[in-house]
Design goal:
Layout: E1 2-4, E2 10-14, E3 36-40, H1 50-64, E4 84-87, H2 94-105, H3 113-128, E5 138-140, E6 145-148, E7 152-158, E8 165-172, H4 199-207, E9 212-218, E10 227-236, H5 242-245, H6 253-269, E11 274-278, E12 283-289, E13 292-297, E14 300-304, E15 310-314, H7 318-337, H8 346-349
Antiparallel strand pairs: 1-11, 2-3, 4-7, 5-6, 7-8, 8-10, 9-10, 11-12, 12-13, 13-14, 14-15
Helix pairs in contact: 1-6, 2-3, 3-4, 6-7
Length: about 350
């Protein structure tokens, strides 16, 4: 029996057992065991203080999974499925900092030196572009230090077996671009000295063999999680590397939804999260917004994209899943209202002042 974790939510039926690409057959009722009821919440930019969001996520996790949840994504290393996150400086040293962070994140791995060199080069090029994206950085505390919206570098693993990749993303708080909208991924990148379409992306496109892109996102650091964009590249992990065989955190069903709820709450989406869980724990649903619902059965998690298609990942890719869900949320929000600022809550949780 599935029960909503919060009362009063309108229920939405979705084809849980028919697979992510299935659509309901118009005019025919679905069998009772082929549908899963999910709560629906409003799409909104969170105004809940960060401390409140994390407390809410913890409450969701406590209700969504039986027993001690143990260590989760927030504590996991890259090798075991976590995300390595660091801020980048706001001056001309940002490219050098990105190079150091990339090497730091992969220290102790057995990746080939030429692969690391390519990654360092691409991270440096993407970080250099953040010099043109300082418009939405907020300052506070002693010394007028940045408390939110600063550029960030993220690294994590995705995929499995021979398809496992190391993903590097550079986030900044400008949802737009310094030379208009970027070209589609895979298109030729015209060169320019200072443009997001310039020589840096041309190099990234070449070194990554076309495995790069860009999307709307939200920050991971700071007093509150601002909206912005992430530009990324991915490097294929050699099958002989320890990273290709490392075991990653892979919680099932309700535990996976609890981890996703915590991750999304810490990205500023906690106010709208409504989970539904199965008593056995293998089937669970998370409503992120009225237009965005996530389902998890066993080792598979999926949701509907804004374009109507379904995105599907295994639970070992929860970091990637959370990032794609954030992107889908931001795309929906931008389509409805345009990019919206996230309300400042630094005064509420005490971060940013020293």
């Amino acid at each position: 029996m599935l029960k909503p974790e919060e009362g009063g939510a309108r229920m939405l039926l979705t084809p849980a057992d028919r697979g992510p690409g299935a659509q309901p057959d118009a005019g025919h009722a679905a069998p009772a065991d082929a549908w899963l009821a999910a709560p629906v919440s409003e799409l909104s930019a969170s105004t809940t203080p960060r401390a409140g969001r994390l407390a809410h996520a913890g409450a969701l996790a406590g209700r969504a999974a039986d027993g001690d949840p143990g260590s989760g994504l927030a504590e996991a290393s890259i090798r075991h499925g976590g995300c390595f996150v660091r801020p980048l400086p706001l001056d001309g040293t940002c490219a050098g900092a990105a190079r150091r962070v990339f090497r730091e994140a992969l220290a102790g791995t057995d990746l080939p030196g030429d692969l690391i060199h390519d990654g360092v080069t691409m991270a440096s090029e993407l970080a250099a572009n953040t010099m043109n994206a300082h418009g939405n950085i907020e300052y506070g505390g002693q010394g007028h230090r940045p408390v939110s919206g600063m550029p960030e570098i993220w690294l994590y693993l995705r995929g499995c077996g021979s398809g496992r990749e190391m993903v590097c993303k550079i986030f900044d708080s400008e949802p737009g671009w310094d030379a208009g909208e970027p070209l589609p991924v895979g298109a030729a990148v015209p060169a320019g000295p200072d443009s997001i379409r310039g020589r840096g992306l041309q190099m990234v496109a070449g070194l990554s063999a076309g495995h790069w892109g860009h999307h709307l996102s939200r920050g991971r650091l700071g007093a509150w999680k601002v909206q912005g964009k992430a530009v990324w590249f991915a490097l294929r992990i050699p099958a002989t590397s320890d990273l290709a065989r490392s075991e990653r955190l892979a919680p099932r069903g309700a535990r996976a939804v609890a981890e996703l709820a915590a991750a999304l709450a810490d990205r500023g989406l906690g106010a709208g999260l409504v989970p539904v869980t199965e008593s056995g724990g293998d089937l669970a649903v998370l409503s992120v917004s009225r237009q965005l619902t996530v389902w998890c059965r066993g080792e598979v998690v999926w949701w509907q994209e804004p374009d109507g298609g379904y995105d599907r990942l295994t639970v070992a890719d929860l970091v990637e899943a959370a990032e794609r869900i954030v992107c889908a949320h931001e795309d929906l929000l931008a389509a409805r209202t345009g990019p919206q600022p996230v309300a400042s809550d630094a005064a509420s949780d005490g971060e940013g002042a020293e």
